[in-house]
Amino acid sequence: MLYETKDKGKKTPTMNIIARGLLTMIASISLAGHFTAQAQSSAFSVGGTATGLASGKSLTLLNNGSNALTVSANGSFTFTNLQSSGTSYSVTVAIQPLGQICSVTNGTGTIVNASIGDISVTCTSTFTVSGSVTGLTAAGLVLKLNSTNLIVAIGASSFKFSTALTTGTAYAVTVGIQPVGQTCAISNGSGVIAGANVTNVGISCSTTFTVGGTITGLNASGLVIKLNGGTSKIVSVGSTTFKFSTALTTGTSFAVTVSSQPNGQVCLISNGSGTIGSANVTNVSIICNSTPVISGIPATTATTDSTYTFTPSATDANGDPLGFSIINKPVWSIFNTANGSLTGTPTTTGTYPNIGISVSDGISSAALPAFTISVIPGAGSVELTWTKPDQNIDGSALSDLIGYSIYFGTDASNLDSSIGILGANTTTATISGLGSGTTYYFAIASIIASGEESDPSPEVSAIVN
């Protein structure tokens, strides 16, 4: 039902309904605008500042591996994609500017209700290392810049490492692998990058030659040879040739020497030194000889007036003629240089120390251990006789005699040998095994049944025949 207005200033019921509907619509519009503002404030940007980028250069950045952004000038930058609060970001350099290296700081983190604007991209100029190559006529040359490798082609006249270095960085160019049959030397190979490309490194390659030769007679292990006192080579048993792996350039002196001889052999070198020309050295000769073997155990005692003889046994694996020699030969002996025999008849006693007998094949020698010969008196005997005692010192009858003790020696004051004689009625004894031509002294004592001995008799002497 509609009501009409009765009084001025009062609204009919119809107008109230329309007014309430309008207010409701206005409130809805305002509320919709409020929700739109909240949605926009929940998405945030990621950016920062670039510095050091050279004029005309550009770099490409990525955020979380995507959303590529090209930066062509120093100053602020911002990725186009927005991120909501609570998500992480990671800014990296995808493409470096030519001739520069750019690094990122503050490049990672998590968005927390605000845009990110403190990422810093700093660019620094880089420089290359290069130079010239001369004389490279073989394959295989590998250069190194610090830890970076570069293969250089045959006939190349220049090189340049792709790795770029920043100012203040130390650099060192070295040969990682020499080309086949050549040796390359480096000049101006190290220094510090100083704001410009390095272009003056020089690589000079020369043809090299090896040193080798022949080996004869090597039948034992242990041979080690050296080239110029440095490079060593172990030579296997039975080898007939050798070649050092180290190569030398034309005009270089060489010398081959034996560092260690093989077991039981001596190796000699001929044509072992000279100067490298324009070809490999192949005429060095190593001849190995087996050391003779000598054996035998000489007697170390000889007796006067008796013949002494000793002949050693000797062999040579190469079948070479052998000769013998001696040192400290006893004056009474004769030495045979053909077979090494030592013979003679000493006439006096004495000691002859440090006798040495050795054998040689003209190249190497071997010797017996030194020995000493002691000459002692030859064997002889003395016959003693005495009178049987019949009373004691006190004059009483000697009734319990059972035998005698005979004392003897070469010193009257020291009769250091003795023998016992049983039988009270025995009055003779022969002492044998005495040195011929030597004076001996003798004394005799009586022995009674209790085992007691009388005082020895006065000494008597005799020269043994």
CATH superfamily of the largest domain: Immunoglobulins
Q: Roughly what fraction of the amino acids lie in strands?
A: over 45%
CATH class of the largest domain: Mainly Beta
Structural class: mainly beta
CATH topology tier name of the largest domain: Immunoglobulin-like
Overview of the structural elements:
With 465 residues, this protein is mainly beta. It folds into 5 domains: 43-126, Immunoglobulins (Immunoglobulin-like), CATH 2.60.40; 128-208, Immunoglobulin-like; 210-290, Immunoglobulin-like, CATH 2.60.40; 293-376, Immunoglobulin-like, CATH 2.60.40.10; 379-463, Sandwich (Immunoglobulin-like). 6% of the residues lie in helices and 51% in strands. The chain is built from 1 helix and 44 strands. The strands form 12 sheets. Strands 2, 5, 8, 10 and 15 form a 5-stranded mixed beta sheet that branches. Strands 11, 14, 17, 19 and 24 form a 5-stranded mixed beta sheet that branches. Strands 30, 33, 36, 37 and 38 form a 5-stranded mixed beta sheet that branches. A hairpin with a 3-residue loop joins strand 21 and strand 22. The radius of gyration is 57 Å and the shape is elongated. The model is unreliable at 1-40 (pLDDT under 50).
